[in-house]
Amino acid sequence: MIGRRLLDSKPLCGALGAAGLFCVLEATGRTGLISPIVFPLASTVLGRAVELATDVDFLLDVVSTLGAWALGLLLTVVIAVPAGFVLGTLPRAESALRPILEFLRPIPSLALIPLALALFSDKFDMKITLIVYAATWPVLMNTLYGLKDVDPLAKETLRSFGFGPLAVLWRVSLPSTAPFVATGVRLASAIALIVAISVELLAGGSDGIGVFLIEVGGSPDAMVYIIATAIWAGVIGLVSDSLFVLAERRIFRWHTARTEVV
Amino acid sequence: MLEISNLTHTYGSGPSAHNALDGIDLTVAEGELVCIVGPSGCGKSTLLRSIAGLLRPTGGQVVLNGSPVEQTPDNLAVVFQDYSRSLFPWMSVADNVSLPLRRKAMDKKQRKDAALEALEQVGLESAGAKYPWQLSGGMQQRVSIARALAYRPALLLMDEPFGSVDAQTREELEDLTLRVRGHHNMTIVLITHDIDESVYVGDRVVVLSKAPAGIVGDLRVDLPGPRDQITTREHPDFVHLRAEVGRLVRGMRSQPASASQ
Q1: A166 touching B (Cβ < 8 Å)
Q2: In chain B, what residues touch A156 (CB-CB under 8 Å)?
Q3: Residue-level pLDDT at B14
Q4: Which residues of B touch A (CB under 8 A)?
Q5: CATH superfamily for domain B1-75+154-261
Q6: What is the pLDDT of residue B116?
Q7: Where does chain A show beta strands of DSSP type E?
Q8: CATH 3.40.50.300-classified regions of chain B
Q9: Which of B54, B86, B103 lies closest to A154 in CB terms?
Q10: Out of B72, B85, B133, whose CB is closest to A254?
Q11: Rg, Å, chain B Cα set
Q12: SS3 (DSSP) at B40
């Protein structure tokens, strides 16, 4: 009974799953099923990941990637949210730009690296530009979607009290769209991290998690380093996503509470 | 105070055009509570939206206190049927009520006091800090009414205001409307499809025909006051009037001995 109740806790269940996978991987290495020379032992990788947490070089690279990630995400919000509002409130502008947007959207941002390399002399500027490019889409699309979802009766209510179009945009459309924008930003944050590390890896530079991966690639136990670094990249992504989800639930309690009731 | 003359409205044009209002003439005196009743889909809401300035009618004129309605007039408030969509879920109840007051020359404290006073009038003085979605349907519609009351409109429009609540709550809200109407000498136009409700609440019942809506009846309700859900509804005049209104709504010729005389 107690065991059943413990499994009801989702985080605990997840931790058990991770521990189980660790044990299986460790066992395949120890029993010789997969030779530790071909693929390092799970315990070796985990040990290296723990060591990395105190490795100043690695930490500086993490800080660098996170800095680019944060700046890129900030610029994305500053650009994509107002752009979404302009397109969402001016149907003609949206009709005019929609085909271009639909054409640009599916182009993977990594395919633009050669072009970006030719355009930018500074690696940091290039990284930020590609992050902004890739992260703009979910924010822009979610803003547009959210604006379409604004209840016409809510707008009409404010209009009936004599408020003008700008006041309706500010007091109804903006707050009503905000939860959708927040979801867009959360999706964009995951994309921004992936693009940041990928650009560092493919285009090089002076620092960043991707650059760290290139540097350790030459060492004798490169595989251990690479997997340990990947684990940290995963942890960073997971933590940032959870923080975003937590913030969304807190700030937009009215949104989740309503949709859960309905 | 409210004068509607030859109001017509047609949606669309060409063969698919839908004629919703057909030459409505109606005058409502200051302080009067007029119920407009008609079959579903007859154009009641089109009429209300034209009065509120939310819709520009294709013909005719609405004049409120001597000035023609072009846009939404300043001294008007609307209570919609769908309270859950009309109240803003991201704001507390008190903020919902005080929001329209930003249109008036009131500072924050005055707005807050006015909101609290209006919430007291509808019996929700302790719900100010809650969010609309934390309240029952009937309470949410009370908040909508409080929001309209706080605004102190000269004209209050109510569009099927009790159409989405249960029968018990409906009666409570009808009595609430009768109680608060005297507070600020408001003129009220209440749109409903409920015949009993129109007779119970109104000073006057205006009956609309099927679309395109025209006025087929205009009856004065002289029932002994104060009105009461039990005794008023069993009063012979009430029974007679509701039958009369019912016949008009169904498109039957009215009986000669009408209680309105």
Answers
A1: no
A2: 54, 80
A3: 82
A4: 52, 54, 71-74, 76-78, 80, 82, 85-86, 88-90, 99-100, 103, 131, 133-134, 151, 157
A5: P-loop containing nucleotide triphosphate hydrolases (3.40.50.300)
A6: 95
A7: none
A8: 1-75+154-261
A9: B86
A10: B133
A11: 18
A12: coil
Sign of CA dihedral A108, A113, A115, A121: positive
Is the torsion defined by CA of B92, B97, B101, B106 positive or negative? negative
Answer yes or no: do B90 and A258 touch at CB < 8 A. Answer: no
Q: Supply the ipTM of this predicted assembly.
A: 0.87
- What average pLDDT does the structure give for chain B? 90
Given the candidates 1.10.3720.10, 1.10.8.50, 3.40.640.10, 3.40.50.2000, the CATH classification of the domain at A40-261 is 1.10.3720.10
| For residue B12, pLDDT beyond 80 | yes
Proportion of chain B above pLDDT 70, given as a percent: 96
How far is it, in rounded angstroms, from Cα B130 to Cα B106? 23
Pairing, β B33-37 against β B155-159 = unpaired
Contacts with A257 from chain B: Cβ below 8 Å: 131, 133-134
Structure tokens at B61: 């004129």
The shortest CB-CB distance from A160 to any of B52, B88, B89 is to B52
